[in-house]
Amino acid sequence: MILRDLLRYNTKYYKLGNAMIPMDDYVIVMTTVNDEEHITRIVNAVIPKKLAACVNVIPSVMSHYWWKNEVKTDEEFIIIMKTKKRLAEKLKVAVLSNHPYKVAEFVVVPISDMGSHYQTWIDGVLG
Fold first, then answer.
1. What residue spans define the domains of the chain?
2. Residues sharing a CB contact under 8 Å with residue 13, sequence separation 6 or more, in sequence order
3. Is the dihedral of CA 83, 84, 85, 87 positive or negative?
4. How far apart are CA 47 and CA 59, in angstroms?
């Protein structure tokens, strides 16, 4: 039934885990790292391969979290990447293979709306 509905509406979908996702949906992907070396490694693994149209880095944020039964506080960098859902799995592989943490954050947030010029730019970069 799902396949029939997909063909009927002539919408291109791809599989991400167990979900069928429209190919042209846009997402923001976030992760955190603890040093500039890993920022550079992630950016170099993502931008040249066009896995994200843009990578932003927010420096010097304080993260408070539970780790091994105690509360930790560390200074980190937030990395924000704008991409398309169809690229999320490849982006995940690129980010996690260059990430310093064993338990790395990789959060995908759908973008419900964006400016048409920005969307056109992302489409031009990512295809």
1. 26-111
2. 6, 20, 21, 22, 23
3. negative
4. 19
Residue 78: count other Cβ atoms within 10 Å of its Cβ: 16
Per-residue model confidence (pLDDT) at position 2: 52
Q: Which segments of the chain have a pLDDT < 50? A: 1, 3-4, 6-8, 10, 23
Cα gap 12→25, rounded to integer Å: 11
Segment (H or E) for 14: strand 13-16
Thinking of the domain 26-111, which architecture would CATH place it in? 2-Layer Sandwich (3.30)
- Per DSSP, 63 falls in state E
CB 49 within 8 A of CB 126: no
Using N-to-C axis directions, what is the helix angle for 88-96 and 36-46, rounded to 10°? 140
The model's pLDDT over 102-123, given as tens digits with 9 standing for 90+, comes to 999 999 999 988 888 999 999 9
CA-wise closest residue to 106 among 94, 122, 120: 94
